[in-house]
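Work package 3, deliverable 3.1, input record:
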Amino acid sequence: MLSSSDKIGLVFFPAFDWAIDPTHPEREERLLYTQDQVFEEGIFDIEGIVEFKPDIATAEDIRRVHFCVPDERSVTTESHLISAGGAKKIGSEVLERNISRGFALVRPPGHHAMRVVHGTRGFCNINIEAIMIEYLRQAYGVDRVAIVDTDCHHGDGTQDIYWHDPDTLFISVHQDGRTLYPGTGFTSETGGPAAAGTTINLPLPPHTSEEGFLYALDNAILPILEEFKPQLIINSAGQDNHYSDPITDMHFSAQGYAELTSRLKPHIAVLEGGYSIESALPYMNVGIILALAGMDYSRISEPDYDPDSLRQGPEISRKIEKVVQESLKVWKQGADIRHNNCRESKLFSRERHIFYDTDRLVEIQKETLRTCPECAGLLTIDSQTDRGRRILAVHIPRKACKLCRQAGYQVYDSTGMEGYFRIFLQDRTSDEYFVKK
Amino acid sequence: MIIGLDVGGTHTDGVLIGNGCILRQVKVATDTCNLFDCVCACLDKITRDVPPQAIRRAVLSTTLTTNSIAEGKLENIGVVVSAGPGIDPANYRIGNHYYCVSGSIDHRGREVQPLKEREIEEIADIFLAENIRRAAVISKFSVRNPGHELQMARILARSCDIVVPGHSLSATLNFPRRIATAWLSAAVHPVHKMFFEAVRESLKSKGFEIPIYVLKADGGTMSFEASLHTPEQTIFSGPAASVLGALPFASSTGDTLVLDIGGTTTDIAVFVDRTPLLEPIGGEVAGRRTLVRALNTRSIPVGGDSCVEVIDGDLRIGPHRHGPAMAYGGSHPTPTDALFVLGKALNGNVEAARRGLSPVARQLEISIEDTANLILDLACKKIIRAAREMIEQINRKPVYTVKELLSGYKINPVEILTLGGPAPFFAPRLEKLTGISTCAVPQWHVANAIGAAMAKNTSEVTLFADTQRGLALAPEEEFSQPVGKNFDRKAALSMACELLRAKCMKAGASESEIDLEVVEDYQFNMIRDFSTVGRNIRVRVQTRPGLIPECRDLAQSMFNCCVLPDCLETVNSEPEKLITHHSSLVTSH
């Protein structure tokens, strides 16, 4: 019997009875051919590969990460809870040391879901990686976490959630935002005042191929990870960088993805996007699983794979080199910027419009961080959509100091309901969540 | 009347059933070196003075094929595999004549790379030169498109008598298991065929021209004729016979745990809704995972004859068996000896049993009686632990729809049925330790043969349709038919049911046994560029393991009227090995 060199776990949950709508890319059929390929290859019979049933995420799990308007139930379906629960399950098995790595092959995805959730963005409602990470922090005391988002779309939701968290390194490698949804993820987006340099964006030009992705990995991602020293590496494993993907323009391949996985060695991979359901996903997923398991993936390829025709031009390589240089600069300068901003308590704020493409909503948001020399600082968010529903959300970070925590409760207690639909308080120091109506 | 015969590792059991009663039961020692004589002896004794026309059928469960695999007695089998991209097929090498060739088919069943006929012709020449007369051909995704396998089979037919194409054995997607299953099928074919032909001839010579059925690993029967196409399904039918024997007594309101406590091992099975659970994909034979439909059973090395010893002050039972209990002249103390010490078993040498247990008691520094109780408790605890693990594992089985995950049925036995030699003595102990109502199956010592006799046919049909490709396919049936754009799930289901009905009849089922059930029923709209281009339909229908209709009421009559001295006849070549035959010892509720 075939056996793997590392014991790994998989949650495979194709949700064969759930779709956003019948012709939506996020539909029942999405993982059908992946299932066929995984079954036919006999993946679950390999000694050392275990399949787990997903958990079902709870409202408490969501409340560690999000402010859902009006509540968790209204913005999720069971399928979202299972998807997040699948990631959570894999995370727990890794932390319990039952497996050394794991892959949650679940849908729907989550990396476009931001801290405040008014509806669906980019097929995402709740951020399944963030829900997993915050659960693992709560249950197992994990501190430093790195997320490497290799979906073709910028992981703007995950970026938003960890924008102010210096203990979470978020690296996103994606197709240049000038050419693809959600239109963000430039090298200039580097994290909030107290977490500068812990958000790293690597926007790659269209038609980037294996060579370009692996160059960015070897020259930016891996060296930065080496210095950040995370306890856990999470890969948001979107698969829409594939040359056959219908909604993107990249030239990545199953071989390339397996190679990337084998070099990155994530503890946990979580499926994100990827909509070339017949020509790419079956092969990429088998490749990722074998690479995670430390097995030979050299014979995995798409039926029409032709590396020569996919090779990137020299112009593209030059652009990528430049992006890599910029991102290294962001990382190197981050520590000083953080230090400067936090020397004394100061207020920083930003105003944004956030578009929910799937639900056709526009959210207007004002976020205020009061930095603190002792902790990541107190965050308040004043948000409303073009349909009303103004809310105030107070976030007390996980390692908040006593004063910031008190200040958070004071804001929550003293703010009146006038003009607000809801007021939320998320206290990560005590794992509590309060709502005022 | 019906004959049921089960060849076990130690005994071969036979029963004659009629009028809702066991008319005759026979037990002979199994001679693994001469299974045929042993089966014939048993059949002779069962059929003695019975008019041939009175017997409707005979169902046989044998260890023949299982033994031949374990003993490595199989002839050389050629295996030709066409994989295409993916895991290196060299990993699945089986036997000394394993060849990987070009060619590739994708998950939708489309040809990606054609076969190179030249390669296969060369292999055919090698097989001819090396006198390899049987072969298995397997291609990846052959269940979506059997073309390559059929093409390989055609070429190899030049040098081989039998070529087994993988898709004909199972429609389940699992390439490595398909290789192992096709190899097994080709390997056991001649042994199986020769044996049953000989049995048929032997019966015929005595005037019994009765239909012969073979028990399969999934607890169903098939006619001998049908079994020639899929002999691998008869491998490992041993546990199935016993499990079926317990079926009439299973609760209809909750889950049942079945424990077949034998000499060397205890086999564990589970009934849900009075149906034995099957392995999700297929059974494991001789360490190889296969696509052979099999009952979900677990075997642990704890039984009546397991060796009892004390190691570092700890009492140990099993995993080895060093011959029979000391009460029966063995050399090592066993749980059966513990039964003798406690006065629970008869017809053996109690003094020898006490002699066996006394050093154990000395080492543990307790009385011999306490030792005996301790041994039996430990044996029961081991069995219970294994059963719990098995149930947990079944409950962990992944599901792939939101609905199934949320409904999340979990097995929780409300009763335990025990069978096998020490069954009635273990029952009260098991009940005390688990708090679950436990009873020994009536006629527990021949329940396996009864199970074989009563088993009904099981069959399964998987139909796959792809309306974009315009094709419906049931690979195991060698069935394919063009379908139009409007072909849907409903049409697929009725097509599959029709195929299944035909398959059941071909396997020798009577109309009244056919009880169709849908086990998988998916229809996916295939969307490309935001418009529907076709439907991808997967349906699976089956007849589940169970009892033939005329035996469904046997349970009651077995409680009431079975042991009629005038029609009961026990022929026992090793009488000292039977503990007792009195049904009064059965703990019933």
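Chain B has a mean pLDDT of 89.
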